[in-house]
Write a structure and sequence with these properties.
Distance between the termini of chain B: 27 Å
CATH topology of the largest domain in chain A: MetI-like fold
Helix content of chain A: over 70%
Order of helices and strands of chain B: EEEHEEHEHHHHEHEHEEHHHHEEH
Radius of gyration of chain A: 24 Å
CATH architecture of the largest domain in chain B: 3-Layer(aba) Sandwich
Oligomer: heterodimer
CATH architecture of the largest domain in chain A: Orthogonal Bundle
Strand content of chain A: under 5%
CATH topology of the largest domain in chain B: Rossmann fold
Helix content of chain B: 25-40%
CATH class of the largest domain in chain A: Mainly Alpha
Number of strands of chain A: 0
Order of helices and strands of chain A: HHHHHHHHHHHH
CATH superfamily of the largest domain in chain A: MetI-like
CATH superfamily of the largest domain in chain B: P-loop containing nucleotide triphosphate hydrolases
Number of domains of chain A: 2
Number of helices of chain A: 12
Radius of gyration of chain B: 21 Å
Number of strands of chain B: 12
Shape of chain B: globular
Low-confidence stretches of chain A: none
Chain lengths: 320, 332
């Protein structure tokens, strides 16, 4: 585990270095963009802007200043908002995590459940339906699915709100939690369905293998009920590849969140990232990239820990 | 004879395959008395494991099904018993030990928990009581330091230890019938004898009836009261152990007995340096009819055998063989 932590730190550092230089390779000039928004763009103004933000310095110097600040927890100031990036990110981190985690619950929970049901009778109609739904969910573009859900459940059958994260008039207490949850349904579903497909496929395959094993026969021979055989003896073993997949896919879910946040006007990191890229707001982009790298690394470490606790063979003391 | 504990009558099991249904058990009948040991012997695929799975109500679905016959446990027909009733019986009144101790335990639960599950499924007892019984039964099957071992996972135990755990799990609810399907096949030779002794000792302590399944005629002949020999889904010879071993009526049984390694005999047949074998292979079950399935491999078979419709032939009160030559005393 110590080794894993060390590599995690190395990984985050490399992300910092790579991002810093890659973003400067991209076309576009932040000074131009800022000047454009200020209304004029003569050479003097551009110089002024570059001086203010240190953009006239050599790239290496800019990097060391940036790296030094990161170590003290300072992610710089947004060119656009003129506010500390760390504050901007913290403000948006919660909505994104809320969206990502709830769609993870939907995709893993529902996907695994469907996979288990499908594995019970691999040639039955349910199995084919699950496979078809999985394939559909996997193939449909997220932004299209989001818009269709909005059309269906916010427009023609207005059950859920069209966009945003909270109603304007709802403030405080339980009402606010319910209100946010209400707003969360469609975006979380949109993001969840796409990934649910893969979890149902993986858990179905894993379950098929597990149900064929000798200890399942032992469980039946003990007199265990069918649900106990499936969900206690079967799923506890079949869940292991699903946990692995969560770790692998988390980055994808996070980038999927960018699209979903845009479609649903969800005030999260993804939308801030998109807007900042369009505005050439380097400090904000770098901050968001760093934050998402940290989130991915942390959740990967958490997955690893969960995997270890779920599989006793990985803990020390084994003979095989 | 007292009322049998278990009476299997004319049991037939079919399996669906791509080329149509295959009869894997054909008209199998036997009885089991309390405290008795019945040995079932035969080559791979002869139906001995399927017989035990049928008794447990565990014929693999959806491909397998019991086509006809009755399995009477104390007079109750298990073939027609509802699933709920079968769950009450499995693991409590009838329990089973499998061949593969390495894979028959769930890798992610401690062995103590797996034994505890067997108790809790059938009895309403307190947590502390369950724990006491787990530790107690692990001690009885000869596991040293049972309180510590109970909290270990299967991968931390050796094959012999795991088979002891399986036995503990099977016996913890004091079943009336214990089915042991090749319980020693996967183990080291030195451990095999220990495990067999353990099963027999526990059987005597509790007066449990045991169905011992093996491909090894040597093991079966040592420990069984009665023996049933199976070939291609049929019971081809059955009777008291002494009769079947010393006065085998079916050529196949004689072949199996000749295959038992014996040090004295090995010295005698030094010139050939080989154990006798039964020529040929186990027949394809799909191609079988009502005639003798062993005839193509049988040294004594003649043209009449090819046409003879298989039927059990009673040699005396308890000894039965399905060979037409057995009746005429040609074999004996």
């Amino acid at each position: 585990m110590k080794q894993k932590l060390f590599f995690a730190v190395v990984l985050v550092c490399s992300v910092v270095v790579l991002n810093f230089f890659l973003i400067r390779l991209a076309p576009g000039d932040p000074a131009m963009t800022l000047a454009g928004q200020a209304g004029g763009a003569d050479a003097e103004t551009l110089e002024e802007i570059r001086r203010t933000y240190g953009l006239d310095r050599p790239l290496a110097e800019q990097f060391f200043v940036y790296a030094g600040k990161i170590l003290t927890g300072d992610l710089g100031t947004s060119y656009y908002f003129n506010l500390p990036v760390s504050g901007l990110i913290l403000e948006r981190l919660f909505p994104t995590l809320l969206l990502v985690l709830s769609s993870l619950v939907i995709s893993v929970g529902l996907g695994t459940f469907l996979g288990v049901l499908a594995a019970r009778n691999p040639r039955g109609p349910l199995s084919y339906i699950v496979t078809a739904v999985a394939l559909g969910g996997y193939s449909v573009p997220t932004f299209w699915l989001g818009q269709m859900l909005i059309l269906a459940f916010a427009w023609y059958v207005p059950i859920f709100p069209v966009d945003g994260m909270a109603g304007l008039r709802v403030r405080g207490g339980l009402n606010q939690i319910v209100d946010v949850a209400w707003h969360l349904v469609l975006p979380a579903l949109t993001l969840g369905v796409a990934f649910m497909a893969q979890y149902s496929r993986v858990s179905r395959a894993a379950m098929l293998e597990v149900l064929d094993s000798d200890y399942i026969r032992t469980a039946r021979a003990k007199g265990a009920s069918e649900p106990a055989v499936l969900f206690v003896h079967g799923l506890r073993n079949a869940i292991l590849p699903v946990i692995t997949l969560v770790g692998l896919q988390l980055g994808q879910i996070l980038s999927g969140a960018v699209l979903v946040e845009t479609v649903f006007n969800w005030p999260g990191l993804g939308r801030l990232a998109l807007d900042s890229i369009l505005r050439r707001d380097y400090p904000t982009i770098l901050g968001i990239l760093l934050a998402s790298a940290v989130v991915v690394v942390v959740i990967n470490l958490a997955t690893e820990a969960i995997y270890r606790s779920a599989d006793p063979r990985l803990r020390s003391g084994g003979r095989h | 004879m007292t009322e049998p504990l278990l009476a299997v009558e004319n049991l037939c099991v079919d399996f669906a395959t791509r080329s149509g249904p295959v009869r894997v058990l054909n008209d199998v009948s036997f009885t089991l008395a309390p405290g008795e040991t019945l040995g079932i012997v035969g080559e791979s695929g002869c139906g001995k494991s399927m017989t035990s799975l049928a008794v447990m109500g565990l014929v693999p679905r959806p491909n397998g099904r019991i086509a006809s016959g009755r399995i009477l446990f104390r007079g109750e027909d298990l073939v027609r018993a509802p699933a709920r009733r079968m769950r009450q019986i499995r693991g409590a009144a009838i329990s089973m030990i499998f061949q593969e101790p390495m894979t028959s335990l769930n890798p992610i639960f401690t062995v103590g928990r797996q034994i505890a599950e067997a108790i809790r499924l059938h009895e309403d007892v307190s947590k502390a009581e369950v724990r006491n019984r787990v530790v107690d039964v692990l001690g009885r099957v000869g596991i040293p330091d049972p309180a510590r071992r109970a909290d270990e996972y299967p991968h931390q135990l050796s094959g012999g230890m795991r088979q002891r755990v399986m036995i503990a799990m099977a016996l913890v609810c004091r079943p009336q019938i214990l089915i042991a399907d090749e319980p020693t096949t996967a183990l080291d030779v030195t451990v095999q004898a220990q495990i067999l002794d353990l099963i027999l000792r526990l059987q005597q302590e509790e007066n449990t009836a045991v169905i011992l399944i093996s491909h090894d005629m040597g093991v079966i002949s040592q420990v069984s009261d009665r023996v049933m020999v199976m070939y291609a889904g049929r019971a081809i010879e059955k009777g008291p152990c002494r009769d079947v071993v010393e006065a085998s009526a079916h050529p196949y049984t004689r072949g199996l007995i000749a295959c038992i390694p014996d040090i004295d005999r090995t010295e005698r047949m030094a010139e050939s340096d080989r154990l006798p074998t039964i020529p040929g292979i186990v027949p394809d079950l799909r191609a079988l009819g009502e005639t003798c399935a062993f005839a193509p491999r049988c040294a004594l078979a003649d043209a009449a055998c090819e046409a003879w419709k298989v039927a059990p032939i009673r040699l005396d009160d308890a000894h039965v063989a399905a060979c037409r030559k057995a009746a005429r005393g040609i074999v004996a």
